[in-house]
């Protein structure tokens, strides 16, 4: 009996310890889906949280906060002053902060101020690099198990660092690899044609050689806590090197070892009634509309899928928003048990989900999605023909119809706005609930 009581007390003590990691979901969208998938593949322990939970003191239950990619300014706006102060208090008290890409930008001086670094102005950086790149790495525990430091960067910013003995640069950019792009130019083709001429034509810095030696990751301290910021996406799914580094980061920042990889809860969860029939029909309609929208861009030679999550698009049109829409629609279908299922087949839902409420949420999404897709298809066709007349900026266009459609659908800035923002926020709210129920 004494042994059993001791074992029970040990279990209670372990259960009361802070959990390894909270993943901040707000304003991540595609990057949140990507990060969650990569962390699950790596067998890492984490919970999804939102800004209101951060504001309510939820970080006290964790050892580390992980903030994935996305627009840093939008993330800060979602957190508000209270959420930002909660994060600073958490790290200062000894918590760890891991930021990747947009999550890294959020921690710089113009954001949370966790490290005394900034981001280079857009006209001084290579703004549109994407794909595999080698790193020059220092002697750090996070590189344990990495033979060749090849990773993926997806349209990163660039750090502006200062000479500070408290800052460490664990990795700098090396050579871009085959399969990488700068804007819509394959790196190998840009090398052959000449980057100087291409930069004059595009009006932006393109040569990935400009990245060589620039910091790809920065580490430092804020109060008693650790801060690790990376512009490289170690959270790219199906990336062996990335998974190794993520596991090492969990040990380094959260003192946590990986557990066996978990399967996605929605896979194969079919056979009993879940969504009512009209809910299934609405979901089918959403999926069909998104597929048709992506097909319009593909048949007009505006993009293609580089991997299951990332589109490669032509300069002058938006691509990230359309990829985000497609990936999140597919993830909602997966959570509901319909990924790969015959059209109209029903799913089994977790007990925590109300089929009637889910159906209403899907209806609200469809009411926003269908007119958005119709207008976006018009825009894509017109952008295709505008590109035939000369270079096209993704924000400005002399064609009044193109300009009007762009403003209506996406707003005036490159960060998410317009009808797209209202639509993707609805989808994000539903997806978060579905993921929490898995």
What does this structure look like?
By secondary structure, the protein is an alpha/beta fold. It has 2 domains: 238 residues, Class I glutamine amidotransferase (GATase) domain (Rossmann fold); 161 residues, no CATH class. Helices cover 43% and strands 16% of the residues. The protein is built from 13 helices and 15 strands. The strands form 3 sheets. Strands 1, 2, 3, 4, 6, 7, 9, 10, 11, 12 and 13 form an 11-stranded mixed β-sheet that branches. Strand 14 and strand 15 form a beta hairpin. It starts with a helix and ends with a helix.
Level-1 CATH class name of the largest domain: Alpha Beta
Q: In angstroms, what separates the terminal alpha carbons?
A: 37 Å
CATH structural fold name of the largest domain: Rossmann fold
Number of helices: 13
CATH homolog superfamily of the largest domain: Class I glutamine amidotransferase (GATase) domain
Provide the CATH architecture of the largest domain. Answer: 3-Layer(aba) Sandwich
Biggest sheet overview: 11 strands, mixed
Quaternary form: single chain
Q: Taking Cα atoms only, what radius of gyration do you get, to the nearest Å?
A: 22 Å
Helix content: 40-55%
Structure at a glance:
About 45% of the residues lie in helices and about 15% in strands. It is of the alpha/beta class.
Write the layout of secondary structure elements.
Layout: H1 2-16, E1 19-24, H2 30-41, E2 47-49, H3 51-55, E3 62-67, H4 72-92, E4 96-100, H5 102-105, E5 118-119, E6 129-137, E7 150-154, E8 159-160, E9 168-176, E10 181-182, E11 185-186, H6 187-193, H7 195-202, E12 215-222, E13 225-230, H8 240-254, H9 277-299, E14 303-305, E15 311-313, H10 320-335, H11 355-387, H12 400-410, H13 418-437
Parallel strand pairs: 1-2, 1-3, 3-4, 4-13
Antiparallel strand pairs: 5-8, 6-7, 6-9, 6-10, 9-12, 10-11, 12-13, 14-15
Helix pairs in contact: 9-10, 9-11, 10-13, 11-12, 11-13, 12-13
